[in-house]
Design brief:
The complex is a heterodimer of chains A (281) and B (501). Chain A is an all-alpha fold and 281 residues long. The longest helix of chain A is centred in the C-terminal third of the chain and has 37 residues. Chain A is elongated, with a radius of gyration of 22 Å. A 10-stranded mixed sheet of chain B has the order 8-9-10-1-11-16-12-15-13-14, with helices on both faces. A 4-stranded antiparallel sheet of chain B has the order 4-5-7-6, with helices on one face. Chain B is globular. Chain B has 14 helices and 18 strands. Helix content of chain B is 28%, strand content 22%. Chain B starts with a helix and ends with a strand. Chain B is an alpha+beta fold. The chains are: A mainly alpha (281), B alpha+beta (501).
Chain lengths: 281, 501
C-alpha cells in the first residue's frame, strides 16, 4: 500500500508470484531433466506390482512394475509440451483473428464475433474431443492442436476487444490520417498496448491447457500410451486407489503443482501489467 | 426420469391388453418394486434387449434363463439340460431332431407356447439381418416343421452334434411379439418390469411361470460404467451382489470382511492378441510363434490380476471338454523368439500397429506387449480405439494388423474353423476338423476331433492367447444362491436368496 506512490523504488514481487514462479520453474527443470536422465527406463518393468513408495521407487510402482516417479517426471514434460504448443497455437490463431476482426468491416466483424461466440460457448473439452475424433487416431499432436484451437477463440475475442479500444484512440486516428498502414498501426500502437493483458490471459490459458491435456488423456484421447501423461496415470490408478492410493495421489499432486504455479504466475503478471490492482496484495 | 415414466406407461398399456385375471398382477405391482428385490450390480448394460441385434454381453447376463428360456439350458457347471423341451428324439442318421415341448408354458403376455413360436424364434436368429455371433453354428438347419402345437421337427443338412447346445442360446420368443429391442415376451421366471436406460433394468417374478418358483420376488440389474463406483455400491449396500469383479485390487476391501462373500468360479473369458493372419508378417507362422514366445504371460497375468486367473496355451479354457494343457507349446522363451524371427526373415524385427480397445485391461496389456516385444526387436505402435470402432474397423472390415480383445463365449473354438472370421486364420485341416466334429455321431468323437483342432491352432499360434480371466462374484454375506461360473456371461437370478440383514 505504501509504495504505490513510489514506483521508481522498484516493484517488490508479491510472495504468491514468487511461489508461482518457483512451482513452474520446478516443473520446467524436471521436464528438461527427463530429456537427458530419468531414474529408470520408463518402460522397464523393474519393480514389483504396485510397490509402495520407497527409496528405490520414490512414488512406488504401477501395476506393470514401472517406476511411477519416472513416469511423473516425463508427465511434466508432456504437460509442458502440450501447454506451450497449445498456447502458441492459441496465440497465433487468436491474436491474428482478433486483429482482423478489430480492423474488419462491420459485416465481417459481426460474422467473426458470432463464430467466436459459438466456439466459446462450446465446452473446450468437447471441442477438443471432436477434433481428436475427426483426426486419424489420438496423438500428442492432435491433443496440442485440439486444445490450442479451442483456446484460440477466447484469445481472439480478448484481442479484438483490446485492439478496438486502442483503435478508438485519437493518436491512432492521427496515425491513420498521416497514412500509416494498418500493419504499421498494429506494430506501433496496438501490440505494445495490448500485450501485457494478452500475456496474462495466455498464462491462464496455459494452466487450462494442462488440465485439458490431463482430461483428454484420462479419457484415452490424449497422447497414446506409453506416453506418461498425468491424466493417463490418474486413469490407470483409479482401479487400484484402495490398495495403492499413492499411484493416484502422486500424479494428482504433480498436476496440482503445475496448474497452481501457472495460475499464481498469471496473477503476478497481471499485477505487474496493471498497477492499479496492486493495492490488493 | 423420462425413461422411467415412459417405461411404466408402456408396461401398463401392455398389461391392459391382458386377461382379467392379470389385473391382480397390476394390483400387486408396488410390492415388487419394494426393497425385497435383489439388486445385482454390473458393468455391462445391454445396448438393447434383443440378443440378435448387437446388444452386447449384458443382455445374456440379464435375460438368459431369467426372462427368456431356450429349448435347452446351459447350466452353470457347463452341462446342457432340457428346458422348454420335455423330451426329444434323434433319428439314426442324426439328421432329424424331434422335440416335444413342455406343456402348460405361457408367455409373459399370456399367450400359450406353441411349436410355431419355436420355429419363428430359431429363424429369428438365423435370419439375414441377425447379428448373432453364433449364427454360423445353426447353419446345418435345413428346415423346421411343426406337425402339431407341441412338436417341433428340425431337419439338418448335415449332422450337428452340438445342436442342443447351440439351441441353448436361441431364445424362445412369442412369434407375435414386436419391438424386441425395448420390450420382451419370453417364458422365463421373470418378466421385464422397467428399463431405465443408463441405470437399471428391473425384473419381476412371473407368477404363471411353468417351472419352479424363483427364490425371490424380483431382481434389479443396476448398471455402472466404472468398477470403483460398482464396488462402492456394494460397500454401501446399494447392490447385493456384483456379477464379476474386474480387478483384484478391489477385492481387498471385501476379502477380510465378514459382511461379504467372495466366490471364485470359472470363466470362459479370454484375453487375446489377435493378429490379422491374412496380412504380412502375421501370415507367417514363424512370426506368430516368435511373438507367442516373446511374451511373459505369467507376468502380464499377475500385473492385471495379482494371484487370480489362469494361463492358457490356446483358445480353449479348462471348462470346455476339449481342453488340453498347451501352455508349453510356445512357452516364454525370448531367445528362441529371436531365432524364429531371423528364420522368418526379420532378423531386425519389424513394427506393427496394435488396435487397442480403450477400456481396462487392454491399454495396460498393450503397454506390456510393447515393452516385451521391444526386447526381441518388434516395435508396437499402440492405437487406442472405442468399442464401436473395434466393431466396424476390425470385426466387420478386417482393416487391422493386430488387436487386443476379450472373448467371453463358451465353446468358441469353432471361430477358428471360419476363415472369414475377423482374425482370418485359415488352416484347411482345422476347418475340416471343426466341420467333422459337428458331424460326429457321438460326443466322444466330437471331443476327440476338437481336441485335435485345439492342438493344431496352438501349434500354428493362430492368435496369441494371453490368459483366462478369473470369474469372481462378490456379495453381501446375507445373499446366496447365485451362479459363480458366468459361462457365456449368464447370471441366473432365480436361485438367489436374500436373508434379513
Amino acid at each position: 500500500m505504501t509504495d504505490i506512490a513510489t514506483p521508481a523504488a522498484g516493484r517488490r514481487l508479491s510472495p504468491t508470484f514468487v511461489i508461482g514462479l518457483v512451482l513452474v520453474g520446478l516443473n520446467v527443470a524436471v521436464a528438461l531433466t527427463t530429456l537427458v536422465w530419468t531414474p529408470y527406463d520408463p518402460t522397464a518393468m523393474t519393480g514389483g506390482r504396485l510397490a509402495p513408495p520407497s527409496l528405490l521407487h520414490l512414488a512406488g510402482t504401477d501395476r506393470l512394475g514401472r517406476d511411477l516417479f519416472t513416469e511423473i517426471m516425463i508427465g511434466a514434460r508432456i504437460a509442458l509440451t502440450v501447454g506451450i504448443g497449445a498456447v502458441a497455437i492459441a496465440a497465433l490463431i487468436g491474436v491474428s483473428l482478433g486483429l482482423i476482426a478489430a480492423f474488419a468491416s462491420r459485416t465481417l466483424d459481426d460474422i467473426l464475433v458470432a463464430t467466436l461466440d459459438i466456439l466459446i460457448a462450446f465446452p473446450t473439452l468437447l471441442l477438443a474431443m471432436l477434433i481428436v475424433a475427426a483426426s486419424d487416431g489420438a496423438s500428442l499432436g492432435t491433443a496440442i492442436l485440439a486444445i490450442g484451437v479451442a483456446a484460440s477463440a477466447i484469445v481472439a475475442r480478448l484481442t479484438r476487444i483490446l485492439a478496438r479500444r486502442v483503435l478508438a484512440m485519437d493518436y491512432v486516428t492521427a496515425a491513420r490520417v498521416a497514412g500509416t498502414s494498418w500493419i504499421g498501426i498494429v506494430r506501433i500502437h496496438v501490440l505494445p498496448n495490448i500485450w501485457p493483458t494478452l500475456i496474462v490471459n495466455l498464462a491462464l490459458q496455459f494452466g487450462l491447457a494442462v488440465i485439458a491435456e490431463a482430461s483428454l488423456s484420462y479419457l484415452g484421447l490424449g497422447a497414446p500410451p506409453p506416453n506418461a501423461s498425468w491424466g493417463r496415470l490418474l486413469q490407470e490408478a483409479q482401479g487400484t486407489v484402495y490398495t495403492a492410493p499413492f499411484g493416484a495421489v502422486a500424479p494428482g499432486l504433480a498436476l496440482l503443482s503445475l496448474v497452481i504455479g501457472l495460475n499464481l504466475t498469471a496473477d503476478g503478471l497481471r499485477d505487474i501489467a496493471d498497477p492499479t490492482r496492486r493495492t490488493r496484495t | 426420469m423420462f425413461a422411467f415414466v415412459g417405461g411404466a406407461r408402456r408396461s401398463l398399456s401392455a398389461s391392459l391388453m391382458l386377461a382379467a385375471a392379470t389385473l391382480a398382477l397390476i394390483g400387486a405391482a408396488p410390492a415388487w418394486a419394494s426393497e425385497a428385490a435383489v439388486a445385482i450390480g454390473s458393468l455391462y448394460e445391454p445396448q438393447n434387449l434383443d440378443n440378435t441385434a448387437g446388444a452386447g454381453q449384458g443382455i445374456n447376463e440379464a435375460f438368459n434363463g431369467n426372462v427368456y428360456e431356450a429349448l435347452f439350458r446351459l447350466n452353470d457347471d457347463g452341462s446342457v439340460s432340457p428346458s422348454l423341451v420335455k423330451d426329444y428324439k434323434v433319428s439314426d442318421d442324426g439328421l432329424t431332431y424331434t422335440f416335444t415341448l413342455q406343456p402348460g408354458v405361457a408367455f409373459h403376455s399370456g399367450k400359450p407356447l406353441t411349436a410355431a413360436d419355436v420355429k419363428w424364434s430359431i429363424e429369428h436368429v438365423t435370419s439375414a439381418d441377425s447379428k448373432s455371433s453364433r449364427k454360423n453354428s445353426l447353419k446345418p438347419i435345413a428346415a423346421i416343421e411343426t406337425p402339431d402345437d407341441a412338436t417341433v421337427v428340425v431337419k439338418l443338412s448335415s449332422r450337428s452334434i452340438s445342436l442342443p447346445y447351440n439351441l441353448s442360446y436361441v431364445w424362445v420368443i412369442n412369434d407375435q411379439a414386436t419391438d424386441l429391442q425395448s420390450h420382451e415376451d419370453g417364458t422365463g421366471p421373470y418378466a421385464l418390469d422397467s428399463w431405465q436406460r443408463g441405470s437399471a433394468l428391473a425384473l419381476k417374478r412371473f407368477d404363471k411361470y411353468w417351472g419352479a418358483k424363483p427364490e425371490n420376488d424380483g431382481v434389479v440389474y443396476k448398471y455402472f460404467s466404472e468398477a470403483t463406483a460398482l464396488n462402492n455400491a456394494l460397500l454401501t449396500g446399494a447392490v447385493d451382489v456384483i456379477t464379476s469383479v474386474q480387478s483384484p485390487d478391489s477385492l481387498a476391501q471385501f476379502k477380510d470382511n465378514a459382511d461379504f462373500t467372495v466366490a471364485e468360479g470359472k470363466s470362459t473369458t479370454k484375453l487375446i492378441l489377435a493378429y490379422n493372419d491374412r496380412v504380412a508378417p502375421f501370415d507367417n507362422i514363424k512370426v506368430r510363434k516368435a511373438l507367442a514366445r516373446a511374451v511373459d504371460k505369467a507376468k502380464l497375468l499377475s500385473a492385471v490380476w495379482g494371484d487370480y486367473g489362469t494361463l492358457i496355451g490356446s483358445f480353449v479354457p479348462p471348462t470346455d471338454p476339449w481342453y488340453v494343457d498347451l501352455t508349453k507349446v510356445d512357452g516364454y522363451d525370448p531367445a528362441s523368439a529371436k531365432a524364429l524371427l531371423k528364420e522368418a526373415g526379420y532378423p531386425d524385427g519389424f513394427s506393427f500397429t496394435l488396435d487397442t480397445p480403450n477400456y481396462d485391461p487392454h491399454p495396460l496389456a498393450a503397454q506390456f506387449l510393447q515393452s516385451e516385444l521391444a526386447k526381441v526387436g518388434v516395435k508396437v505402435k499402440i492405437n487406442v480405439i472405442t468399442p464401436n470402432e473395434w466393431y466396424t474397423k476390425i470385426y466387420k472390415a478386417h482393416d487391422f494388423q493386430a488387436t487386443l480383445q476379450e472373448h467371453v463365449n463358451h465353446r468358441d473354438i469353432v471361430f477358428y474353423g471360419n476363415p472369414d472370421f475377423y482374425w482370418g486364420y485359415n488352416n484347411p485341416k482345422v476347418v475340416d476338423l471343426i466341420k467333422q466334429s459337428e458331424a460326429a455321431a457321438s460326443v466322444d468323437e466330437q471331443t476327440a476331433k476338437l481336441k485335435e483342432a485345439n492342438i493344431q491352432i496352438a501349434e500354428d499360434a493362430a492368435s496369441n492367447w494371453l490368459y483366462l480371466y478369473p470369474q469372481i462374484v462378490v456379495s453381501k454375506a446375507s445373499v446366496s444362491g447365485y451362479p459363480v461360473n458366468g459361462l457365456n456371461s449368464q447370471f441366473f437370478a432365480f436361485g438367489i436368496k436374500k436373508s434379513a440383514d
